[in-house]
């Protein structure tokens, strides 16, 4: 009688989609279909392809179609917390994309499209909580990238082309099986330009941890202001607080 079908999911109509459009602080249009129980990409939203932001996070999507390329104005795309095993090659046509979050899916290195390296205006990329065992060296072409999340994968190394991106300020590669011999040296060096690692928000820390981090940061700032040392690189041993996994609040990855 054939294979058992998965959950149907909620059917999104054009009316529902239109009612889900919000105006952003800078006057853009955001289509928010997060937490809707969607299992398949709603074709009707292709009629709303002129939106600036698209949020399909926290659903049950397994596939994003090539028709995503119709969203040419898109600057912000949030697909986190779905069941995506791959991304379409057509995603590389979204030349205005500034922010891409595909955290907490089932993406593998093999199924990362080459088109990702065409996103020349991308500033923020979150690939955390997936099944990646390596990072394509071609991502080094994303010269505008300032933040990248690689946490909770199966990485043993990070390509130099990514570590040495000229504008990179925040790199989170916590909870990957890096070899112990290179964990401290290689990855400490790779973030030498970074002022702060990607931290959890203050509200997510217990009071004692928050006080400890604040005290250490104050000490470090005082030390750097009073007795700066040119020969010694600043280190942040107590500020390596990782992001918690699969958070409901993904605003820490949202451009402020």
Compute the number of helices: 5
How much strand? 5-15%
Identify the CATH architecture of the domain at 31-172. Alpha-Beta Horseshoe
Q: In percent, how helical is the residue content?
A: 10-25%
Question: Could you give the count of β-strands?
Answer: 8
Shape: globular
- Please, what is the average pLDDT? 81
CATH top level assignment of the domain at 31-172? Alpha Beta
**How would you classify the quaternary structure?**
single chain
In CATH terms, what is the fold-level topology of the domain at 31-172?
A: Leucine-rich repeat, LRR (right-handed beta-alpha superhelix)
Q: How large, in whole angstroms, is the Cα Rg?
A: 20 Å
Biggest β-sheet, characterized? Answer: 8 strands, mixed
Secondary-structure element series:
HEEEEEEEHEHHH
Domain Disease resistance R13L4/SHOC-2-like LRR: 68-206
Keywords: Leucine-rich repeat, Repeat
GO cellular component, one term: cytoplasm
Pfam families: LRR_14
Verbal overview:
With 256 residues, this protein is of the alpha/beta class. It has a domain at 31-172: Leucine-rich repeat, LRR (right-handed beta-alpha superhelix) (Alpha-Beta Horseshoe), CATH 3.80.10.10. The protein is built from five helices and eight strands; from the N terminus they run αβββββββαβααα. The chain has helices at 14-19, 160-163, 180-183, 185-190, 207-226, and strands at 21-23, 29-32, 53-55, 76-78, 99-101, 124-126, 147-149, 170-172. The protein has an eight-stranded mixed β-sheet with strand order 1-2-3-4-5-6-7-8. β1 and β2 (29-32) form a beta hairpin. The protein is globular and about 60 Å long.
